[in-house]
Design brief:
Layout (H helix, E strand, L loop, with lengths): L7 H16 L15 H18 L6 H13 L4 E2 H10 L4 H7 L2 E4 L2 E4 L19 H13 L5 H11 L7 H15 L4 H12 L1 H19 L8
Antiparallel strand pairs: 1-3, 2-3
């Protein structure tokens, strides 16, 4: 379903059909105690599995992204105590100082706060960034997509450039956008709309990024140097 670029807002509903096809494909579906399983329980199990699938790939993310994801889940963009951040950062084999240096959070006066997408620098260059992460690329893409004067083409150039970095798995960006939407759909509607925009635009975004890469490769194949 992710490969089909189903918007995150539609993902839960889209999984119901295949899930209920399994449930209704048998004459009888029973609980552990042998009683008939009601439709309500089947729907709950489908949603449970969806949550597990969205969460299971977090371990493949880089350390900075895993910290930011967990911190965001707990505190969003709000400030929280440095001590809590320090303990969490150590658990993910990173550091608050390193994350601050990477530009994804700020700290001061004993508190820590993640940097909102709209507050990230518009001059950011993923090619020269000395400490890049999937988290940073995801938020930058969301920022550009939603910004006035941004849109698909501007975001595609950014994604194409980020894809040149060995540290960035482009597919992980899409998975993170889905995960963030799942976290925010009920509690942070503004953020949910932002991440849904990124996830729902994925097909157009990857297609446009492919055109950017092709154009760069074609341009690079012509060498006009040397004497005339």
């Amino acid at each position: 379903m992710r490969e089909g670029a189903i918007a995150p807002v539609d993902l839960a509903q889209a999984t119901i059909g295949p899930g209920m096809a399994v449930f209704s494909g048998f004459r009888q579906v029973v609980e552990n105690d042998g009683s008939d399983m009601p439709v309500k329980t089947a729907l709950a199990l489908i949603n449970q599995v969806l949550d597990e699938v969205l969460a299971e790939q977090e371990g493949d993310l880089d350390a900075d992204t895993r910290f930011c994801l967990k911190w965001y889940e707990q505190y969003g963009w709000a400030r929280a105590q440095f001590g809590h951040a320090d303990v969490l950062a150590r658990a993910y084999n990173t550091s608050v100082r390193g994350l601050e240096d990477a530009g994804v959070l700020t700290q001061g006066e004993g508190v820590v706060q993640l940097v909102r997408p709209q507050d990230l620098p518009a001059t950011w260059n993923p090619v020269t960034d000395h400490r890049i992460s999937v988290w940073e690329v995801t938020l930058q893409l969301a920022r550009v997509l939603s910004a006035e004067g941004g849109g698909i083409e501007a975001a595609a150039k950014l994604m194409s450039a980020a894809g040149r970095r060995s540290e960035v798995d482009v597919d992980s960006i899409q998975r993170l956008a889905y995960r963030l939407y799942e976290m925010t759909q009920k509690s942070r509607p503004d953020d949910a709309r932002l991440f849904n925009l990124l996830g729902g635009s994925w097909s157009d975004l990857t297609e446009a990024a492919g055109r950017v890469r092709l154009g760069t490769a074609v341009q690079g194949s012509f060498d006009f140097g040397g004497d005339n």
